[in-house]
Design brief:
- Helix content is 32%, strand content 23%.
- It is built from 13 helices and 19 strands.
- It has helices at 3-6, 46-55, 91-100, 104-110, 145-157, 211-217, 289-297, 303-310, 359-378, 385-408, 418-434, 438-448, 460-472; strands spanning 9-10, 36-42, 59-66, 115-117, 122-126, 129-130, 139-141, 162-166, 169-175, 181-187, 193-197, 200-203, 225-240, 250-253, 262-269, 273-281, 318-328, 340-342, 348-349.
- Strands 6-5-14-15-16-13-17-19 form an 8-stranded mixed sheet, sandwiched between helices. A 6-stranded parallel sheet has the order 1-8-3-2-12-18.
């Protein structure tokens, strides 16, 4: 059995224009019923691995074209600068990952990645003051992006249907006579252009996707985009977690337009460490240890600076600037071809400060798996899948996009939509109540973690409390 048969990393592939597999519509896949032949995933990062995982249930072969050299020990890609920083896995995302990779939470927990209630072991500084400490029933786990990707990658590589080809640079897409995307052109480090056929191509190449160029070269229209600028800069340090402070696993200070421009997040992670990201809107947290500590001391939540000052060792500091959020509206592209879809940052880039970037791709992947499973069970085939999936993904993206961009729009002094101004004001009222009202805080936590619809915060009981506060309001104490 070859490395490719085992699903491990292959140094190269001989797949070319005349090297298609014989696996076709009658091929039996991991799901145990007839499936399809080959799917190609462009990008082997987090979103690409999730896509490969669900595709392996429905295709005889899943080829992942990854530009970096990767193996089973590879974690976060060094060429993805945001990977070094603190990542929040929302509760909904954790639930979804557990469905795709049973036992993943326990596996990470054995490495020291803590699991805790969002309201019990968190020091959360809202713009109105500290959130009340109360049991919310929302369980989360904190870990580094590096360890998460390493564990997921190892599991995906164990799938017999999956082959990951490292060092492969995708050059473009190939349309068949029927207009479908039927192949991918790529080049490896050994040189020479190659082509591999596919019944489905998944763009998981991240925020730097070349999809516009690929569509243009294939004489297809480029999709419109929705962009909200909010330039947030992060600097991150990973350091040892000393035993002096063990009664919390997450300390946080949120930014809030227009007045709270500096923030930070410190999460307990595996192997007895903290990962601390300091960030700011049009602010630049320093990349030297002393400046990093001074910036932390400028925050109103003192726990971050206290732990940074106690460290006895730390990793190299990393900085990354996120220019804003971008949603590629492929579902609105009238000329979008069959046989091509997108997932993760290649579809929608969220402002990382809201912690949605890991959860949304997981939900998208689960949805893709469900659509494929339904089509197999009904014998529908792949016709129309691309548009059906992209419409489904748009519905998944809509709510978190609205929640995050509404806040980001308030950084701009002009052109704030009325709806954004109202939502911003309403959030302020919710935050004010959350300082002492466990029910309101729990509702906010559930909505923020995508385990409940945003309407939960518009419940009559919450509206009544906001109205009562407006009537009896006293000046808020300063932080």
């Amino acid at each position: 059995m070859t490395d490719a048969d085992k699903g491990t990393v292959a140094p190269d592939t001989n797949a070319g224009p005349n090297a298609d597999t014989n696996a076709g519509p009658n091929t039996t896949t991991a799901a145990g019923s007839p499936g399809w032949g080959r799917a190609v995933v462009v990008g082997g990062g987090y979103a690409g691995l999730l896509a490969a995982r669900v595709l392996a249930d429905h295709f005889a072969e899943v080829l992942v074209l990854e530009r970096d050299a990767v193996d089973r020990t590879t974690g976060a890609h060094p060429t993805a600068p945001q990977s070094y920083h603190a990542h929040a896995m929302l509760a909904k995302g954790a639930q979804t990952l557990e469905l795709l990779f049973p036992g993943l939470r326990a596996e990470l927990e054995r490495l020291g990645a803590p699991v805790y209630d969002y309201g019990e072991r968190i020091s959360f500084l809202l713009p109105t003051g500290y959130a009340v400490r109360a049991t919310t029933g929302v369980r989360i786990q904190s870990f580094t992006r590096d360890e998460l990707e390493r564990r997921i990658r190892a599991r995906v590589l164990d799938l017999a249907q999956v082959q990951v080809l490292g060092g492969a640079r995708v050059l473009g897409l190939v349309r068949g006579p029927d207009g479908r995307i039927g192949a991918v052109r790529y080049r490896t480090g050994e040189g020479g252009e190659r082509e591999v056929t596919a019944e489905l191509v998944v763009d998981a190449s991240g925020r730097t996707t070349s999809i516009d160029e690929w569509l243009g070269e294939a004489r297809l229209p480029v999709s419109p985009k929705s962009t909200v600028k909010a330039k947030i800069t992060y600097t991150t340090m990973v350091f040892d977690r000393t035993p002096e402070e063990k009664d919390y696993d997450l300390a946080y200070q949120m930014t809030f337009a227009p007045s709270v421009r500096r923030g930070g997040a410190m999460l307990a992670v595996e192997h007895g460490r903290w990962v601390c990201s300091l960030f700011g809107f049009e602010q630049h947290p320093p990349t030297d240890p002393d400046g990093f500590l001074d910036y932390a001391r400028s925050l109103d939540n003192p726990l971050l600076a206290e732990q940074i000052a106690r460290r006895s060792g730390h990793d190299e500091l990393h900085r990354y600037t996120n220019p804003g959020s971008t949603w590629r509206l492929h579902h609105r592209n009238p000329g979008w071809p069959e046989g091509l879809i997108a997932i993760g940052d290649a579809l929608c880039v969220f402002n990382p400060v809201y912690g949605q970037g890991l959860t949304v791709p997981a939900i998208e992947a689960e949805a893709l798996g469900s659509l494929l499973g339904r089509r197999r069970s009904t014998g529908t085939g792949l016709a129309g899948l691309s548009r059906e999936y992209l419409r489904t993904a748009a519905r998944i993206i809509k709510v978190p996009w609205s929640l995050s961009t509404t806040s980001d729009l308030m950084w701009s002094p002009a052109g704030r939509p009325l709806a954004a101004r109202f939502a911003h004001w309403y959030n302020q009222q919710v935050f004010a109540l959350a300082r002492h009202d466990a029910d309101v805080w729990t509702r906010f936590v559930k909505v923020a973690n995508m385990t409940a619809p945003s309407s939960l915060l518009m419940h009559p009981s919450v509206l009544a409390k906001i109205a009562r506060r407006a009537v009896t309001r006293r000046p808020e104490p300063t932080r």
